[in-house]
């Protein structure tokens, strides 16, 4: 498409005092097994001033155990959004931080909880961002991590590093509150216009399709190029203008393929 090809280079840099961006932050729980953990997570969020809970394909919800464990945070459960995929949950988000006790196989920028809170708040100035937590038994799958831009690791006992789901939510929510209420913290937003997970996903679907047609995508490992480039772009934190350039490059290859 012609509009993809010509694009304007711009750099935006804004310095903003944090006020209250906690409401922009979505807490996403993926395939939660115990409904009690959903309630405890809602309580952990509300005590720290977070409101937006999104459940991806929960095993048992709604459930009385969730209500019991939420105690006075039942309003967070009442406003919960239940969706069928991680992409649906984070489609409009620019920064998607995935919490995982394991680091193997993922080449995403790693963040400690404090740095994660600061990164999320910085981006929340411009729109929705997400913090994603995995299921109790096996954590987040490679597929769940596809749309993540950062990985968060809570430092813990190397011999027993897996926290209870709601405890992990509590730690991150507390860091977010601290970062949000710190009057000395200035949020310098160098990358004001980050693309949403949905627009990045559209780019990657198109990239895989076009480079499959040229034969560049390895038929034996069709997802490998996409995975590597997703991580590369996440590390580079490409902005919307840069994504337009990449879309333009795809358009020019697509044009040759169809001429
Ligand atoms: N057995 C799973 C852990 C599940 S705990 C595994 O090995 O991955 C449920 C969720 O809590 C995890 O998916 C993760 O989102 C979060 N979590 C627990 N411990 C964590 C840690 N040390 N660092 C980051 N996230 C953690």
Tell me what the structure shows.
The structure is a single chain. The chain has helices at residues 2-5, 35-47, 64-70, 74-78, 86-90, 113-124, 142-145, 165-181, 197-214, 224-236, 240-258; strands at 14-17, 25-30, 52-56, 81-83, 96-99, 110-111, 129-133, 150-152, 186-189. Helix content is 45%, strand content 14%. It is globular and about 65 Å long. Strands 4-3-2-7-5-8-6 form a seven-stranded parallel β-sheet. Strands 1-9 form a two-stranded antiparallel ribbon. It is of the alpha/beta class and 259 residues long. Residues 99-102, 133-134, 136-140, 152-154, 156, 161-163, 165, 168 line the site of S-adenosyl-L-homocysteine.
The largest sheet has its strands arranged as: 4-3-2-7-5-8-6
Helix/strand-derived class?
alpha/beta
Ligand kinds? S-adenosyl-L-homocysteine
Topology as a string of helices (H) and strands (E)? HEEHEHHEHEEHEHEHEHHH
Poorly predicted ranges: 1-18
Q: Quick summary of this structure?
A:
The protein is α/β, with parallel strands linked by helices.
